[in-house]
Amino acid sequence: MIAPKSIVFTDWDGTVTLQDSNDLVTDLLGFGKEERGRLFELMLDEKMSFREGFLRMLKSISDNGYSVDYCIEVLLKNVKLDPGFKPFLMWCKSNEVPLYVISSGMEPIINALLQKLIGEEADYIEILANDVKTDPNDKAKWDIVYRDETPFGHDKSRSINKILSTYGDNRPSAFYCGDGISDLSASKTCDILFARSGKDLTVFCDRHSIPYREFHTFDDVTRDIAAVTSGEKSVEDLVEGK
Question: Which spans are transmembrane here (predicted)?
Answer without folding.
Answer: none
